[in-house]
Amino acid sequence: MMLSQLVDPDLVEQMRSRRLTRFGYLLKDRVLDTAVFLEQLGTVAAGGTVIDQSAVDGYLRRDDGRLGQLTERETQVLRLVAMGRSNAGIAATLVISRRTVDAHLRAIFGKLGIAADGQDNQRVLAALDWLSG
Questions:
Q1: C-beta separation of 59 from 83 below 8 A
Q2: Count of domains in the chain?
Q3: Sign of the four-CA dihedral 94, 81, 59, 68
Q4: By residue range, what is the domain housing residue 107?
Q5: Residue 95 maps to which CATH number?
Q6: pLDDT tens profile 67-122
Q7: Three-class DSSP category at 47
């Protein structure tokens, strides 16, 4: 879990190149609720990804590179993945089925060139890939 003053693309690229299985990147001035922060730590400890919403929004507005290939719905799904939401949480937020979330994730991983690998967490790699632009 990283607490930072701002989103540093070079630092994100270093984390991405290490192919982490879990990752957290929060802007420290936005960590205001202890209970939420502890929940985010738990998500990362359990093998998930948590990225500050303002960082997610800023990067997802970019239209260049491989992220430009994603549909609007795939972008919404990736945004929620990066924020640490589970498939069930994504389904509830977007009012779609969990099977549909799975289908969107498969499409996202395919478009970003992230292969299924027992050694790596595809969700974390997708979030890091997206952050590095």
A1: no
A2: 1
A3: negative
A4: 2-131
A5: 1.10.10.10
A6: 788 898 998 898 888 877 889 999 999 999 999 999 999 999 898 888 877 777 78
A7: coil
